[in-house]
């Protein structure tokens, strides 16, 4: 079965261009160097054939979420994964509000690793803190159902199996996942050996990999490390994401072409890709 991937954003925590920066990438006229903060949407065929023909899974609610939804006329999200609670991956969560009110009104499940549940509730108590007994007044709140995931085996989301794993990200960890023959590894400075072995055995059709800069970085993969991990995992194709303003799209494209004998390329906002489930 073939599933779709929509790249809502491919940039780092500030997006590109960075306000007040006059570097070549930030001032570039190349539209592929204009990057919202990193987020993707997965679209699955609706197997029960009731209602909408596709199921839509959003990965991360960036501060640019509203713009991404408008750019692509997204009016339905069936579930959301939050990879970690850093602001650039979370703080647009309130922009799910209009998608909850319909018509018809719907509750959107939000999946997060159990280690981040407390932090998420503390950041958005008006959405998730059920201990608050004050009656809601005004325009209402997003109808979000907080659910936790772990790394102890596959979990079914929207009728599809997902395997989750934790990746080191500075002093913390982020949530990576594999769905069918697609894997998403974001915001990490290393990949544990057991995750590498799992992904190699999966024989991936498509891999999306964190690739933030040219020089070594304390909390992210740089080009050299990202390329090394891609070679070890050896998917059929790989996309590079979360690029900062050190990296020009065309320059990174050429570096990848010179380093691999299979398709590896930088992703850009609004790209639509496909991957095989099995």
* CATH topology call: Metallo-beta-lactamase, Chain A
Report the uncertain regions: none
Classified by CATH, the class is Alpha Beta
What class do helices, strands and sheet pairing give?
Answer: alpha/beta
Number of helices: 8
- Cα end-to-end separation: 7 Å
Question: Which CATH architecture?
Answer: 4-Layer Sandwich
**Range of strand content:** 25-35%
The helical percent reads 10-25%
Strand order of the largest sheet: 6-5-4-3-2-1-14
Round the Cα radius of gyration to an integer and report it: 18 Å
Mean pLDDT: 94
Write the layout of secondary structure elements.
Elements: E1 2-9, E2 39-45, E3 54-59, H1 65-71, E4 79-81, H2 87-90, H3 97-101, E5 108-113, H4 117-123, H5 125-128, E6 144-149, E7 155-157, E8 160-169, E9 172-179, E10 182-185, H6 193-202, E11 206-210, H7 223-233, E12 237-241, H8 249-259, E13 264-266, E14 272-276
Parallel strand pairs: 3-4, 4-5, 5-6, 10-11, 11-12, 12-13
Antiparallel strand pairs: 1-2, 1-14, 2-3, 7-8, 8-9, 9-10
